[in-house]
Amino acid sequence: MPFTKEHLANLNRFRTILLGIALAMQKAAPSTAEKSLWKGLENSIRKIGMYFIPAEVLAQKGASKVLGLRQRVYQFAEEKTPRGRRIRIVGVKEAIELPMRHVFYGKRLTVRGIATLVHELSHFPKPVAALAKFAKKYNLTLEQAEELLADAMAARAMKLMGFKDSTIIREFYGRRMLFPQIDYFKMIRAAMKIPKEVYKNLAKIRRPLTRAEAERIRKLIEKRRAEKRKRLGIFRMPMPKRRIQAA
Hints:
It is a single chain. By secondary structure, the chain is mostly helical. It has a domain of 109 residues. It has 11 helices and 7 strands. A hairpin with a 5-residue loop joins strand 3 and strand 4. About 13% of the residues have low confidence.
């Protein structure tokens, strides 16, 4: 099944909702460490690409029964020219790559697909000292701590999306064997307890813009475009006025 405009629209809707959740959680975060986690998720949503492999392609590769996640490496960087301008060339960037039917049922995202995407987007570089402190607290390895944080963030995000607790727990049921040292579901349930402040922040983020706000944003965009044109030496020529002749 090819990737269509309907698939893209549903995926963009998911990313927009998840971005709102990340912003709301940053405002309500009780500590700098937790705020940095949701800031990292925000950056992932904005920057990480997603690629979905159709079942037909997997079948051709002899991997139709294999469900795996791979990350492809892309490169982006900047280079200075003699005039001081910057040109984008190849650098390093990650992209999430998943079998299409794991994420979509028809043209809509599945619950399992949403859980997987949020989990993978939650894998971003974290401060080693903070991760080591978290791992030591629960007697985990660094790899286990990274996976547990990604699971907890995914569970909280899904709760804020409106999924029932039982639905969320079901999606993480097979993960508990990775963490024999702790009560895994106790941690996931704790992550699903949402402070009221988060819902208030989420409501503010989701509300439609007022006319004054929309006008202010429009002027800001025009100002930035004008500054960019000036910096690059591009000047917009005024359009000549048409003369209207009387009949």
